[in-house]
Amino acid sequence: MNKFFKKYWGLLLVLFFSWWAIKPLFHPGFFPMHDNTQVVRVYEMARALRDGQFPVRWVQDLGYGFGYPIFNFYSPLPYYAGSIFVILGLDTLAATKLMFVIGILLSGIFMYLLAREFWGELGGLVSGLFFMYAPYHAVQVYIRGSVGEFWALAFIPLVFLGFYKVFRHSVDDPNLIDQRAIRQLADKNQKSKPQIEIKKRIWGWIVIGSVGYAGVILSHNITALMLTLFLGVVIICCLCYTIKSKKLLTSCFLLLISFLGLSLSAFFWLPAIFEAKFVNIGSLIQGTNNFRLHFLCPWQLWDSPWGFGGSTLGCDFDGMSFKVGKIHLLTALAALFLLFSKEKIKKRVIPLSASLPVVMAFCFLLSAFLTTEYSKFVWEAITPMAYIQYPWRFLVFIIFSVSLLAGAVISWFKNYRLKLFTLDLSASSLQTGLLLFALLFYNAKYFQPQKYLDVEAVSYTNEENIKWTTSKISDEYLPQNFPIPKESSEIVREKLLVPSLAVVSELEIKSQKYNFTINSPKEIQVLVNTAYFPGWQAFVDKKISDFLVKDGKMVFIVLPGEHKVAIVFGNTPVRSLGNTISLLSFALLVFISLYVRKKTFG
């Protein structure tokens, strides 16, 4: 434990200074947000898990009570985390708040781990907190309530950490190989060559990068789409380098990270892609979600008024802010100046670290360009980008690049010392203190909701709120051509409708299965008040029964007499394929982790 504290004391400070970012989540009640569905989604996820459904795809009460396959399409990872707390005994509101807290903390932790590889402990501390306290991060948490987005934001540094470590350890270049690790292994009189042991660690970082990439995909598929575009550029650049140096195996390792990340999350994205034709996904890019309505003006990245409204056409009427943060921009600019100064470039030890500002500057400029109307031709040329909906979502990569650069300011002053009265301080420590004070003084105020609501968990999980209020917010996952209720009186109260002459007994209703016994003196028609989606099947006396889809719901015939009936939501071939790929990938990653054991974080 002492060894951990000595090595990762910066991580403890990241967690300590995170208090002002998460403090509002410990206030009684909750707060309003644009996507005011989070508590209900956690509730429905926990209910499905308790029913034995895994992976969870279908929830039974959303969709106006008809149910729909939200987690077949909408990123499930944050809700799995939140539902665990519900299953452990917390109420749904408290579990939702903890889900928010975890997403915020992970952003600082993973950025710290990435930045310390380049800038050391103090640099990692600065970058981690700059990432956590970026104004757009506050927008995601306390204004938009976009849980999936800020969870995905947290995993992005982990992806690049895996890429960087694999590249650094696999390229046979004395300037890139971790010489300190080699010396440590050599000092322990390892029987095998230290170089071979370093190569083993590559597999550990492949696991880390793969888990990070899968984490982004499972947290927010739109952010994953944007990240994939950037990773494609990174892999191409690495490929060009390795072709020139005849080290193609390195590029193979980077491709393997991507492949394993995709494989691990295949249970989610495979059905999401191939079954999208069955639901109203097209509505996500229509109307006010059209990307052409949400371009920014460049000056909005420097400063724009803070507010709790939404995004509108033009640059003068937006209800929320899209600023990167003046402290972030100025610190990143100072870091670039120092990193590119001739004096410092001459003293560089690791060329890969010296090339980082070029990569981050490119990431910043490309992301900033894609937020403005000047990039409209790119959006129209690459059709899938329409599903990103809002060009300003590229702020994720802007704050990633400037936050990672911010830590570089500290690293260049680590060898200087200052005497202040009787204290002998390192210049970097003093500079870190001043930077963090300024960061918290100016940016902590953004991590506040507009107001607090005096509500409890039941305020969100009551039937009327789930089946009507929340269902109206997000009904794009209902099957195509399903009749949308116009009034609250049309929501589902009973899952089964049978003629009065029939007797239903032993009724058991779960999210993915309805079991009951029905007794009727003559042939009857049974209506299942559930939206039909591929995977639903009817079994009468354990035999598959044909059914009709009427007004989007299932109708089947039951012959006279007593019968055991089961309505079951199962897997389609593409879901089974995705599940199998993910299971095999998970087993492979566990095997690799056991193989490398403690060498993973060496």
What does this structure look like?
Helix content is 55%, strand content 10%. The protein is an alpha+beta fold and 602 residues long. Among the domains are: 2-145 and 280-454, no CATH class; 496-569, Sandwich (Immunoglobulin-like). Strands 4-5-11-7-8 form a five-stranded antiparallel sheet, with no helix packed on it. A hairpin with a 2-residue loop joins β7 and β8. α2 packs across α6. The protein is globular and about 90 Å long. The model is unreliable at 173-186, 188-194, 342-351 and 420-425 (pLDDT under 50).
Layout: helices, strands, pairs:
Elements: H1 2-7, H2 9-17, H3 19-22, H4 38-50, H5 77-87, H6 92-132, H7 135-144, H8 147-170, H9 179-187, H10 194-219, H11 221-245, H12 248-264, H13 266-274, H14 299-302, H15 326-340, H16 342-347, H17 351-371, H18 376-381, H19 395-411, E1 417-420, E2 423-426, H20 427-443, H21 457-461, H22 463-473, E3 496-497, E4 503-510, E5 513-520, E6 524-531, E7 536-540, E8 543-545, E9 547-550, E10 553-558, E11 561-569, H23 573-596
Antiparallel strand pairs: 1-2, 3-6, 4-5, 5-11, 6-10, 7-8, 7-11, 9-10
Helix pairs in contact: 2-6, 4-5, 4-6, 5-6, 6-8, 6-19, 6-20, 8-10, 8-11, 8-12, 9-10, 10-11, 10-12, 10-23, 11-12, 13-23, 15-19, 17-19
